[in-house]
Amino acid sequence: MRSARLLVPCTMLLAATACSTAPSPNTNGPAPAPAPAASRGPSTAATLKIPPGQLPPPGQCRVWVEGLPPGKQPKARTCSGIEDSAPPSSWVVYRPGQDKKVVHVREMDRRRVGIVARVTVYDVQTGAVIRGG
To answer: Which residues contact 40 (CB under 8 A, 6 or more apart)?
Structure first.
């Protein structure tokens, strides 16, 4: 009887450990450095993916939602309060009135409405990053 009482807990322990995985051994030395950006190709932040005709007029802003076709994007408007109405993961695109060759893109936070996660400045002609990103 006593051996039967020990058999059940031992069987349960064996079954529980048999289903778990052992952690992989650590390798010696530091983790390898990430690949340089050039070898990974351009990212969304590295290239402005908004058609030039869809940019807001100088001095105005426009919310840009990735995945929506250009004709379905919100219209350009004044910049006052636009970040508060921009959905998470969208961009607030701003063309300064004094420099028509650049566009400022405020990337909104993925989870929180009204929070700017990053600001990147792009060249309007080439779409290349000038600053930030």
So the answer is: none
Domain count along the chain: 1
Evaluate whether residue 17 is within a structural domain. Answer: no
Q: What is the pLDDT along the chain (133 residues), one digit of tens a residue?
A: 555 555 455 455 444 445 445 444 454 555 555 444 444 444 433 467 888 889 999 999 999 999 999 999 999 999 999 999 999 999 999 999 888 899 999 999 999 999 999 999 999 888 889 998 6
CA distances from 100 to 46, 59, 68, 96, 132 (A): 20, 9, 25, 6, 18
Handedness of CA 97, 112, 131, 62 (dihedral sign): negative
Q: What is this structure's pTM?
A: 0.63
Q: Which domain holds residue 88?
A: 42-132
Nearest residue to 56 via CA among 90, 88, 104: 104
H-only helix segments in the chain = 2-19, 37-40, 82-85
Residue pair 61/92 in contact (Cβ under 8 Å)? The answer is: yes
